[in-house]
Amino acid sequence: MTGPRKMRVAILISGRGSNMVSLIEAARAPDFPAEIVLVLSNRPEAGGLAHAAAAGIPARAVDHRAYPDRAAFDAALQAELEAARVDLVCLAGFMRIFTPGFVEAWAGRMLNIHPSLLPLFRGTHTHEQALAAGVRLHGCTVHFVVPELDAGPIVAQAAVPVMPGDHPVALAARVIVEEHRLYPAALALVAGGRARLAEGRVMFAADVPPAEGALLSLCV
């Protein structure tokens, strides 16, 4: 007797894919509700492609430089995702902005992890932004992707303290540890049907406690 069908997940990367690695490792567990069936990168030289291939996962490059515009590139991605019968997309350091049409086609089925406690510090250089702002807590956020950059409904967050005299590199190192814990946990919530996007907000199942659905970890 087989269990429920696992959600088929594709991971999109642009570099070494450290969050990709954490998702692949988590998905090895028999009770994890998702399976990683494809890794795509917009950069053929991305180090994460070799790691995915070594893990036995189909890994391919769709070089954005080979396409005349964003729409053509997004269409090529869409073809790869459809061919692999992907249910859900996870962005893991994917450094491309999608066309609104692509995002809308994956509404409620595309996640991203961002290295800040959104809505604070959108965009890049988030650790420098946090230090410049003088905040005492920083962290990371998993959210559904919407056309506006880093603005989608939040699935889960994890926080780390900002230490006196902190440096962006040291702060980033503490945040990445939490990212590697948070992303698999958030994916499990969504793939297991315990968190979903509805009417522009994330709805949690009744058995998801507030700590699991919002702030999953506080590193002190």
TrEMBL record:
In this UniProt entry, which residues are annotated as the site Raises pKa of active site His?
A: D150
Q: Where is (6R)-10-formyltetrahydrofolate bound in this sequence? A: R70, N112
Give one GO biological process term. 'de novo' IMP biosynthetic process
Q: What does the record give as its pathway?
A: Purine metabolism; IMP biosynthesis via de novo pathway; N(2)-formyl-N(1)-(5-phospho-D-ribosyl)glycinamide from N(1)-(5-phospho-D-ribosyl)glycinamide (10-formyl THF route): step 1/1
Where is the catalytic site? H114
Give the GO molecular function terms.
phosphoribosylglycinamide formyltransferase activity
Q: Does the keyword Transferase apply?
A: yes
One Pfam family from the UniProt entry? Formyl_trans_N
Its biological purpose is as follows: Catalyzes the transfer of a formyl group from 10-formyltetrahydrofolate to 5-phospho-ribosyl-glycinamide (GAR), producing 5-phospho-ribosyl-N-formylglycinamide (FGAR) and tetrahydrofolate.
* Family (UniProt): Belongs to the GART family.
Task: Quote the protein name from its UniProt record.
Answer: Phosphoribosylglycinamide formyltransferase
Organism placement in taxonomy: Bacteria, Pseudomonadati, Pseudomonadota, Alphaproteobacteria, Hyphomicrobiales
